[in-house]
Amino acid sequence: MNTTTEPDAALLDVIVIGGGQAGLATAYYLRRAGLTYVVLDAGETPGGAWRHAWNSLRLFSPSSWSSLPGWPMPAKPGVDYPTRDDVIEYLSAYEQRYQLPVERPVEVLAVNAVDGGLQIVTDRGIRKARMVVSATGTWSQPFIPDYPGRSAFGGVQLHSARYESPDAFVGKRVLVVGGGNSGAQIMAEVSLVADATWVTITEPLFLPDDVDGRVLFQRATDRWKAQMEGRTVDAPIGGLGDIVAIPSVRAARARGDLNSRRPFTAFNEQGVTWPDGSDESIDAVIWCTGFRPALDHLHPLGVVEADGRAAVEDGRSIRQPRLWLMGYGDWTGAASATIVGVTRAARDMVARIQQAAAQA
User: Fold this and answer.
1) Model-level pTM?
2) Least crowded by CB within 10 Å, which of 28, 191, 207, 346?
């Protein structure tokens, strides 16, 4: 465990809450800015949310396009798209490479406003900083839609946040719900061992086979630059949420296993009811339905809105100017919830933090 040399009572310039990719990218630029800071991470070991991803997960960009600032993710021979374990290994090495002051495991319970700064209440004591960057991500807040009868269903319900492998579903009747990249990747492997049906709100949008994260990020960058300059850009619509045809997805599509069905209307004890009124017995549902921001620790500040987000301008809380948010989604910086996109977002945010610190 890396620890800051500042004593607990010291007033730091910044405390970063969360040691995943957003927290580390922020720490990198805080280090360069010469500000005093520490990163508090609730995890037992490095890796952030990647430690909880399913075993076979793969990124949809090559390693060179899946990197944090300063150090490209090392490429491995014969690996086109890094695995979950590759990312965890990289994030752990990144901390060590830059000797980032990460303290773990430290659970942040609350953030309060006090004279001259913010008070961070943790399970290891109380800290104080002039400013706080919240980078806790979304993994701990999985979202499951509230279908009628869901609580009465007698089968297994599992969110992708807890999914590990298809082994538990061999020979089962399974619904994989959700039309994004996680739904496609999980459906691709579950369909090999189970009687699986893919349930999506609309027909899934597959990107061309030659389009991966590199192309998507460039498109997002072009649109962002055009917006900043008040112009439009003639570029394909495909975005970071569309399905990238990594090898396992292409194979499943070729098998005919990625044909989706529109959502059921309700659960019953044995399964689900479809829009035509027919009932189907199923054994399990895997929910690939996304996440919500993990912001419980910010409730004492009164900054969390009815939609579960915090109102921000350029990453800075509108209600509490000493608070900054990073890595939760495009509302905290374009593509800031991705490895490739968080660099730009963190760099720009830390520049504003440095300016705010100088004016204080």
Assistant:
1) 0.87
2) 207
